[in-house]
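FAQ: What does a multi-protein file look like?

Like this. Sequence, then tokens, then the next protein.
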Amino acid sequence: MKLYYMPGACSLASHIVLEWIGKPYETHKLSRDALKSPEFLQINPLGAVPALTVDDWTLTQNVSILEYLAEQAPESQLLGDGTPRSRAEVRRWVGFINSDLHKTFSLLFGAQRYLQDESAQKELAASASALLTKLFAQLDAQLAGKSYLVGSAPSIADAYLYVVLRWARAKEVNLSGLDNLSTFHARMEADAGVKAALQAEGL
């Protein structure tokens, strides 16, 4: 398996899960400019990471890659404890992070793609940041009394949450009072797989 990634991007979640499952893999680092290169566009026509190649097959879209990797090591229980309810809970939070949080971050990172006026860009970014605070509060509530989003063991949802938490801290999203998220972040920072992925990406 080969993971195409950009340091710190959402592909970091897949990188962490690759470490967790313990299967052989290699990585290919891309710069932002390289995402649109003819070579990479042949791998992913959208020019986005992550992309995962397995022999002559290529898989794109972060959520699909995370699930595929989890299924390579079912003993790791990264899709839950094996019950339909547990799997649904993991997918619920992966969907929330991907469809609500990640989508809102796109407004914060790239307001200029949506608006030309600088003052309007700043207003959009401020609104996106405020919405992110509300969305993170839901995750903080979910973590109450839990080590991870779906109980006592990490899942693919936790790898994804850790990545967007890094973005929130970098963009100074207001996370004050969200103590469960702060504890979760510290727990993930201490995880051996997380440390290995961060080191490999130079973060």
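And here is the next protein:
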Amino acid sequence: MTTDPVLTAIDAAVEALRARPHAHWLLAFSGGKDSTAALKIILAAYRKSGLASLNLTVIYCDTGVENPVLDIYVKSTFLALEAEFAHRGDGFATKILRAPVQDRFFVRIVGRGYPPPTNSFRWCTPSLRIRPVSRFIEAQDPQNTVVVLGLRRSESEQRDRSLAKSGEGLWQKQREGNRDYDLFLPILDLKVSEVWDAIFWLSAPTSIRARPLQELYRDASGECPVIKAPSAPPCASGRFGCWTCTVVRRDKSASKLIDAGYVELRPYFEFRNWLSEIRNDPDMRWPQRRSGSLGMGPFTIEARKAILRRIDELEDATRSEILDAAERGAIASLWRLDEYKRLSFR
């Protein structure tokens, strides 16, 4: 019996695939090292399993505000992965998911006046990451779906405590509303060095470029998963995630990437800092909540217009599209609705 952790993980995945050969396997791919290792281990396990076929879909949840450097890497990888799957003829698929227009980050902030997320009001993760995946699973067959996550036990002390408390292993349950589905965690017991071993040693998929990914991690570490297992803690300051994230005081991964030469991130980083600064400015917020209770409410219309102007400037500076036409249309409609309410909030 092998004692190599990567081979042990592959053997465990072989058993899992053989136990659920007719399930729809969804692999949540964020582009980081952990989800990459999970993908490679599942493909290696499939080749070893002897199964004639596997219903596998690799999903990426595009929040629209992902770290631009990682987002470019993931989307180029996804194009290559799609072509590789088609060439292999295994029937594997890829799918990029997005939240509905009304739930997207800047539609909520600029259109509805939501303050940027905080630890006590973390509205972004359910809207941008969890619900799009849940809707996709709901449209399939939740009872016959297995979601593969690149969650590791040794990633942090907080995560270790959560996993110890849950008492669960490679198989866990995820509940959404009144439905639940199975989670499989193939790299749960791998250490960081073993994750990189899996990425570099395992050949498939060949469209995964290990060296560029390693370079990204040279000065910034961690990844925000597409969805989280019940025992997983929130994303921390050192993780790849949304460039707009104001939950943390300082985006360490972005600042380290800028220091490492990714100067194209600087305008995004400066915008994020400005957004965090104005979040609790009473002059930028209505003095009443939408519920009618007193307290800092949504951003004022004037504040939202100021944020939109800064977004326009950011698009010019980065030569990128941050708001598409549908999002701009939704924002304009929401402003018209709130214009009728302005007098009641003065």
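Q: Is there any per-entry metadata?
A: Some entries carry free-text notes. For the entry above: Strands lie at 24-28, 55-61, 93-97, 145-148, 171-176, 179-184.
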